[in-house]
């Protein structure tokens, strides 16, 4: 599917305007990155893996989930990618994949690599992070209220293959806990 075809599918779907606009924005980020790599305008980009129905469902589903959660602020951990290569429609490419790098670079998102010999950040994941995440780093001053886990099927060598989503609120600081830090 081309970017224009996917945009048309999303625009015709019965979606809340916020969900529709966010899903379109995520696909636009991918189209701009792919267009830059291939030297074509974003509307002419032909998506291979990202044009598949599962990627469309992933992106629209993520937008629907955020909407259902009340459109919360999104904070993310630091972005860590594996090393090695990935096989895609264009052959064997080094990690991070070119589209992933372009998407993260366009937003100014820092990236580190670890010794895991697998792709850990896809262009879809990078585009979702670029669209929604306000900041990247460890949790601080955060009180979790719910936690969800998504387990991948590939066994990683150095870390679990898990995506974790945590819903929560800023932690209330108690005056008693901070007394030693202040002068009366």
Keywords, separated by commas or semicolons:
184 residues, alpha/beta, two-stranded parallel sheet, 6 helices
Provide an overview of this structure:
- The protein has 184 residues and is an alpha/beta fold.
- 39% of the residues lie in helices and 22% in strands.
- It has helices spanning 3-12, 17-38, 53-68, 98-107, 123-132, 175-178; strands spanning 74-76, 79-81, 85-88, 91-94, 111-113, 133-136, 142-151, 162-170.
- The strands form 4 sheets. It has a two-stranded parallel ribbon with strand order 1-6.
- A hairpin with a 2-residue loop joins strand 3 and strand 4.
- The N and C termini lie far apart (65 Å).
- The model has no long low-confidence stretch (mean pLDDT 90).
Per-chain topology:
Blueprint: H1 3-12, H2 17-38, H3 53-68, E1 74-76, E2 79-81, E3 85-88, E4 91-94, H4 98-107, E5 111-113, H5 123-132, E6 133-136, E7 142-151, E8 162-170, H6 175-178
Parallel strand pairs: 1-6, 2-5
Antiparallel strand pairs: 3-4, 7-8
Strand order of the largest sheet: 1-6
Q: Helix and strand string, N-terminal first?
A: HHHEEEEHEHEEEH
Low-confidence stretches: none
Number of helices: 6
| Shape designation | globular
Task: Calculate Rg over CA atoms.
Answer: 19 Å
Measured distance between first and last alpha carbons: 65 Å
**Major β-sheet annotation:** 2 strands, parallel
Structural class: alpha/beta
Helix fraction bin: 25-40%
Strand content: 15-25%
Number-wise, the strands total 8
Mean pLDDT: 90
């Amino acid at each position: 599917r081309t970017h224009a075809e996917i945009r048309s599918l999303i625009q015709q779907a019965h979606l809340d305007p916020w969900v529709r606009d966010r899903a379109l924005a995520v696909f636009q980020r991918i189209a701009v990155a792919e267009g830059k790599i291939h030297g074509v305008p974003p509307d002419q980009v032909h998506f291979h893996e990202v044009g598949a129905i599962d990627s469309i469902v992933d992106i629209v589903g993520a937008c629907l989930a955020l909407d259902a959660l009340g459109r919360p602020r999104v904070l993310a951990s630091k972005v860590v990618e594996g090393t090695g290569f990935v096989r895609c429609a264009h052959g064997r490419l080094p990690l991070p994949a070119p589209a992933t790098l372009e998407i993260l670079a366009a937003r100014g998102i820092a990236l580190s690599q670890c010794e895991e010999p697998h792709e850990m950040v896809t262009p879809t994941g990078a585009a979702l992070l670029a669209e929604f995440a306000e900041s990247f780093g460890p949790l601080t001053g955060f009180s979790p209220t719910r936690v969800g886990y998504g387990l991948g099927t590939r066994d990683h060598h150095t870390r679990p293959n898990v995506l974790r989503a945590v819903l929560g609120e800023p932690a209330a600081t108690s005056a008693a806990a901070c007394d030693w830090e202040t002068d009366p």
